[in-house]
Amino acid sequence: MRRLQLLAVTVGLFLTAPLAAGQATPHTPPVGSAERTAILTTLRTHPDMRFTFRNLRVWNDGARAIAYAEGDNGVIGGFKIILTRDGVAAWTVVWGEGDGGSNSCAVGARHYRWAVDLIASYHAQPDVLFPGITAQTGELEQMAKDEPEADCVGDLEGGPA
User: Fold this and answer.
1) Could you tell me which of 23, 60, 71, 161 has the fewest CB atoms within 10 Å of its CB?
2) What is the pLDDT of residue 49?
């Protein structure tokens, strides 16, 4: 009887735990690779735009993928962007924060929480794909409670509706 209970618990844990997508950590697409070129094509609004990346990480979850890019483009300044791709479809920017502009701590907290939840839905650890996102989210949530109207984040793109 005890073995049967142990087996049932083990099977239950296996079925409820998210399965890894075949990789232990996100990867950085090499310069000149088709994957990196596709991401750059999505990010470029002008063919001559150059990017300096501090982070460029991709996590594959079966046929779909999520990417995090952070850097500077020389035109609009610093940026943090999340892109997604389903199957062979093109990459799509679904979330972003850029230099300039301002939004309240409450808006920023919702924006960052949405990104944490999105990354987790791809069976990735949010901080491994997007370094420091959970701490930043927690700080924004606390600041939203303390000073909800204070401006805490820059221009926001995508994210929660």
Assistant:
1) 161
2) 67
